[in-house]
Amino acid sequence: DKDLIKLEGAISADEDWLGIVWRKTDSRRYARIAGGSHTYAPDYGMIKFEVSDSSDTLVEKMRIEGNSGNVGIGVTSPERKLHVTEASGVTYVRLGNALSDPAVLEFEAARSPGSSAQQSVGEIRWSNDNFSNEVASIVAYKGGSSVDDALAVDFNGTEKFRIESDGKVGIGDTSPQSLLDIGGATHDYGALAVNATGSLSIA
């Protein structure tokens, strides 16, 4: 039951490639790096990186496109220099360090479409201690049939202010009704509102 390195190649309807494969003598393949070309763009090369899943099937995890130089992780047709995606659920990109009290920056893309309410479509988070202590975040919301798009700023997991796509700004108010709403009518410390004509009201 020894580890082997072999060469494999294939010609298919989509790609022609030659690859290096890591496998066992029992024919189980663990990983493959393959280089070749697309049949729809034969003048350009590509490299793809594959690893096996629990069913012993090689699954592509990353590729580099020769015509654009784009790198795709989780996507076979990358549209940007770095294109990261998940087949379903949430996509995360995390930057950080290995200190005992690490600084972490994370990008998140997620959405549950089909709702009339606002749904988060992306978030940038700053934190330490591997996100057990979130410091701040900027969250983008996609509106539904009855609400606007919005951009919100949170501190320690609590929203502090937001800008709606209709131009309304809320500070301490997640549903601003005027151009500027501070506090909101339900808060004990009162509210300040500025309407479209510049009129000021204090509740």
Structure description:
This protein is mainly beta and 203 residues long. It is built from no helices and 17 strands. It has strands at residues 3-11, 15-24, 29-38, 45-52, 58-65, 71-73, 82-84, 91-96, 103-109, 119-128, 133-142, 150-155, 158-164, 169-171, 180-182, 192-194, 200-202. The strands form 2 sheets. The protein has a 10-stranded mixed beta sheet with strand order 8-9-10-11-12-13-14-15-16-17, with no helix packed on it. Strands 1-2-3-4-5-6-7 form a 7-stranded mixed beta sheet, with no helix packed on it. It is elongated. The model has no long low-confidence stretch (mean pLDDT 79).
Q: Which terms would index this structure?
A:
203 residues; mainly beta; ten-stranded mixed sheet; seven-stranded mixed sheet; 54% strand
Task: Offer a quick outline of the entry.
By secondary structure, the protein is mostly beta strands.
Number of strands: 17
* Fraction of residues in H or I helices: under 10%
Q: Radius of gyration in whole Å, from Cα?
A: 25 Å
Overall mean pLDDT stands at 79
Binned strand content = over 45%
Global morphology = elongated
Please trace the helix and strand order, writing H or E for each element: EEEEEEEEEEEEEEEEE
Largest sheet composition: 10 strands, mixed
The tally of helices reads 0
Give the neighbour order of strands across the main sheet: 8-9-10-11-12-13-14-15-16-17
In whole angstroms, the N-to-C terminal distance is: 78 Å
Contiguous low-pLDDT stretches (5 residues minimum) are: none
Helix/strand-derived category reads mainly beta
